Amino acid sequence: MKVGIVCYPTFGGSGVVATELGKALGEREHIVHFITYERPVRLGRFTRNVFFHQVKAQEYPLFDFVPYESALTSKLVDVVRFENLDILHVHYAIPHASSAYFAQQILKEMGIHIPFITTLHGTDSTLVGISSAYEPVVSFSINHSNGITCVSNYLKQITIQNFQIQKPIKVIPNFIDTRRFKPLDSTVHNKNCLAPQGERILMHVSNFRKVKRVKDVVEVFRILEPELPLRLVFVGDGPERDQVESLVRKYQLNTKVSFLGNQESVEDLLPLGDIFILPSENESFGLAVLEAMACGLPVVCTATGGLPEVVSHGLSGFLSPLGDVEDMAKNIRIILASEDTYQQFSLNARKEAQRFTLEYILPQYENYYEEVLLHFHEEPHQQSSQLAKLS
């Protein structure tokens, strides 16, 4: 099968999932064409059966903002025509779903018929997508998608509430490659670079947006630091980072906190941690949580969004009320109460992550592609039959 994948090429969850999916499809002998404005960060080195097409939006003095959506639509038409794609799979509705719809209509005029699937990842249907600036276009393009998927049952319900969805939505959760995301080899001792005194490492990975409530991580660490030998490690970057760094300095925690910035190979860093913390206001799924669990890190996070579908409270970690930093601190104390307790939580986290392995999730996408293709190519025949009966 020849698949075109449209995504954001950044460190965010939707781009990561789309890239890992494309690479996995390539390994299964599908031909995959990524179509976006930069090479996706997780694409890395050359991957067999995987190709990249850069969208270049032309600047012009008339434009205050470069019309990326139009450039993407034109690129989709070009790639579908000359690479003979079978299906398009767009990740994150804005503006990818509407571009796919426009491209589909242009191609239809050329006698080329191709379906597209829209995968919703979170804020495209819970926050940005419901803004009056985008809602009519988002609603239209989702409803005109030939297939719709969400990454969690929570997100499916929110999407149904926020938009007048007239088609079935299939839930296909995010996935993990447990060959890459795995616990630290017992023979490797490079944790010393982050915790020179053998402290436990509390780790947070995110894009430092307001919804992640990263300052709550600092507040939890401030509570625990006087009583436990801990280090705090931040991975990622974003708009809230300056405020978080200022808070660390205000509390004079500089010597105990590290900011590592964006990292392409997060699978090399996560196993160095001991506990993963995510106090987000909302998570459609929580891919960073899943990656941490696969590396054997118990998780302390908020009981919001799709996180309860990933983390089993009291088993692979704990779910705390939103904003309750005292409860999060209490849960970290429980996990670190003894080495035996910690090891049990760690083993449970790794075991829970196995529910979302690539080997289990990838066939769900492949089967859904086949289902959408079959239905799409049957529709014209059904319409012709109906017209014949009417005549």
Descriptive key words:
391 residues; alpha/beta; Rossmann fold; 2 domains; 7-stranded parallel sheet
User: Quick one: overall form?
Assistant: elongated
The CATH class of the largest domain: Alpha Beta
The strand count comes to 13
Give the name of the CATH architecture of the largest domain: 3-Layer(aba) Sandwich
The DSSP helix count reads 13
**What is the share of helical residues?**
40-55%
Tell me the series of helices and strands, N- to C-terminal.
Answer: EHEEHEHEHHEHEEHEHEHEHEEHHH
Question: What structural class results from the helix and strand content?
Answer: alpha/beta
CATH topology of the largest domain: Rossmann fold
Q: Which band does the percent of strand residues land in? A: 15-25%
Description:
By secondary structure, the chain is an alpha/beta fold. The chain has 2 domains: 2-175 and 358-390, Glycogen Phosphorylase B (Rossmann fold); 190-355, Glycogen Phosphorylase B (Rossmann fold), CATH 3.40.50.2000. The chain has helices at residues 13-27, 68-83, 93-109, 123-126, 135-143, 153-162, 214-224, 241-250, 266-269, 287-294, 325-335, 339-353, 358-390; strands spanning 2-6, 31-36, 50-54, 87-91, 116-120, 147-150, 170-171, 200-205, 230-235, 257-259, 275-278, 299-302, 317-320. A 7-stranded parallel sheet has the order 3-2-1-4-5-6-7, with helices on both faces. The protein has a 6-stranded parallel sheet with strand order 10-9-8-11-12-13, with helices on both faces. Strand 1 (2-6), helix 1 (13-27) and strand 2 form a beta-alpha-beta unit. Helix 2 crosses helix 3 (93-109), helix 3 (93-109) crosses helix 5 and helix 10 crosses helix 12 (339-353). It is elongated, with a radius of gyration of 23 Å. The two termini are 37 Å apart. The relative contact order is 0.11. Residues 383-391 have low confidence and may be disordered.
